[in-house]
Automatic annotation (TrEMBL):
Residues 95-220 form the Fido domain. The lineage of its organism: Bacteria, Bacillati, Actinomycetota, Actinomycetes, Micromonosporales. It comes from the Bacteria. This is Fido domain-containing protein. It comes from Actinoplanes campanulatus.
Length: 243
């Protein structure tokens, strides 16, 4: 029995998730992906990393980051995380705590003391519960599980430094590993950034533990995934225009 299933019964959540799913499915059919899927995936990964760093307070122009002139440690950490994600997909459902520690090591190097890399600073019991929810879970719908993973990690902030980068990466891993977005194209991070006040507000609402707070977060997450799907179209159109 899926312990998260009742969340889909909250008002407007299931339709929002269904709409986001439709947007992703449509974006996955973009014709640029037939011959230029690698380019689209690389650009999506870059944009997701830049957006994730911005949400943790390190805001830089995409073209500057692309050009290699940005040395900010949070940006560099987000880029390292993005590069490492494909190699962590299979490990995530088998050893989620190990993966979270690895993500933090990658994200926070140069930001926090080396001694704190990969080490929990709070929320150990809830992290254990979250790991239990992730490990081997093939029942919870992928987007719902990703939304809860993300919300739990930004609520707990169990690591020092850019814990948000870790949270967003873990959610991305969930979408990829569960087959919702197997090529890692959906830049939900861009969606969060484009709706940043809502992102912050709904995350805070989720942290209250109320039904309305959880509902607010889930609706936001669906909107962010939808925006991430729309970004695939933008990237794909740009790739086709350049060839």
């Amino acid at each position: 029995m899926d312990p998260l299933a009742p969340l889909l019964d909250l008002a407007d959540v299931a339709p929002a998730f269904a709409s986001a799913r439709d947007a992703v499915d449509a974006a996955h059919r973009h014709r640029a992906l037939r011959k230029h899927g690698g380019q689209v995936a690389a650009e999506a990964s870059l944009r997701a990393a830049v957006a994730s760093a911005a949400l943790d307070g390190s805001r830089f122009d995409l073209e500057e980051v692309r050009g290699g002139t940005v040395t900010d440690p949070v940006v560099q950490g987000a880029l390292r995380v993005a590069e490492a994600l494909p190699g962590l997909v299979d490990l995530w459902p088998r050893a989620p705590r190990q993966v979270l520690a690895k993500l933090h090591v990658l994200a926070a190097r140069g930001v926090v003391h080396d001694h704190d890399l990969g080490r929990l600073t709070s929320g150990a019991e809830r992290i254990d519960a979250l790991a239990g929810l992730v490990a081997g879970n093939e029942t919870t719908p992928p987007m719902l599980l990703a939304a809860v993973v993300h919300a739990e990690l930004i609520t707990l902030r169990p690591f020092a430094g850019p814990a948000g980068v870790v949270a967003r990466a873990a959610a991305r891993l969930t979408l990829i590993g569960r087959g919702f977005d197997p090529r890692g194209l959906v830049t939900a991070e861009v969606g969060h950034l484009s709706r940043e006040p809502e992102y912050v507000g709904s995350a805070g609402a989720y942290a209250t533990g109320t039904t309305d707070g959880v509902r607010s977060w889930l609706r936001h997450y669906a909107a962010a995934v939808t925006a991430g799907a729309e970004e695939i179209v933008v990237i794909g159109d740009g790739v086709l225009a350049a060839v």
